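Extended Data, record Copper chaperone
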Amino acid sequence: MSQKYYHVNGMTCEHCAKAVAEEVNDVLGTQGVEVDFATGQMIVTGEGFTDAAIKNAVEEAGYHVVEN
């Protein structure tokens, strides 16, 4: 199992983080998601998910992944 780190823009509260986590948890291959709205950091754990799928899920929640 691997972990990938992402930065999500626009979250201002715990509800925002929960909305992002719920969408990302639905991505095939994810097994865990940790989101910190204060820092914008998101850690996704799993195997076989793609960056594009994660980005799309975050956008479905109304936020954006910042490119490193």
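Summary. The two ends are 22 Å apart (CA to CA).
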